[in-house]
Design a protein that fits this description.
It is globular and about 55 Å long. β1 and β2 form a beta hairpin. A 5-stranded mixed beta sheet has the order 3-2-1-4-5. The protein is of the alpha/beta class. The chain has one domain: Ribonuclease H-like superfamily/Ribonuclease H (Nucleotidyltransferase, domain 5). The protein is built from 8 helices and 5 strands.
């Protein structure tokens, strides 16, 4: 079970509002990258409802959906930011991830004084104090919460994309490069939401 030890260290430095950032969708061959930010104060507690918060990849889809609503209930604020496939192709996936994170920050009403960011790199050109955490979604409660918001948001969007482009099986693999997805790509070629800059999309 994750705890709030890292978050407490930051609050002990005098910060009053903290944000945690994570993304979903860096690896897929289609669709957007989605970043989520969760905002909280020192009174955040891991209630019984939140004790199963973990890295989104470790949870079932049903569990993620349940926690999605509970996170929105218990955190001060939650926001998301998107970068579509065209932007990813234009500026690359890393820069698109950073841009999605900045969009999530820009959508907030409550501005954080410190950021916990999943990954090995801090958010560039950001005036907010921050710390990057490698595999933060596996170790830090608030980043894990952000990972759930990002994952559920993106999965829901890809379910809608499946209705528009039913030949590719997006409802199952959400755009990741599964054997089935690659077979459909070979059969039908890329659709309008495929990332053409990704090597496995175009033969």
């Amino acid at each position: 079970m994750l705890d709030l030890a890292e978050e407490k260290k930051i609050f002990d430095q005098g910060y009053e509002i903290i944000g945690a950032l994570d993304e979903a969708g860096r690896g897929p061959l289609a669709g957007p990258v989605v970043a989520a930010c969760v905002i909280f104060k020192a009174d955040l507690a891991i209630s019984n409802e939140l004790e199963t918060v973990d890295d989104s990849k470790k949870l079932t889809a049903k569990k993620r959906e349940l926690l999605f609503d509970l996170i929105k209930k218990h955190f001060l604020e939650v926001s998301v930011g998107f970068c579509d496939h065209k932007t990813i192709d234009r500026i690359n996936i890393l820069q698109a991830t950073f841009l999605a994170m900045k969009k999530a920050l820009g959508a907030l009403k409550n501005k954080p004084q410190f950021l916990l960011v999943d990954g090995s790199l801090a958010l560039p050109n950001c005036s907010i104090s921050q710390q990057a955490y490698i595999k933060g979604d596996k170790k830090i409660f608030s980043i894990a919460a952000a990972s759930i918001i990002a994952k559920v948001t993106r999965d829901r969007l890809m379910q809608e994309m499946d209705k528009l482009y039913p030949h590719y099986g997006f409802i199952k693999h959400k755009g990741y490069g599964t054997k089935e997805h690659l077979a459909r790509l070979k059969q039908y070629g890329p659709c309008p939401i495929h990332r053409l800059s990704f090597s496995r999309v175009l033969p």
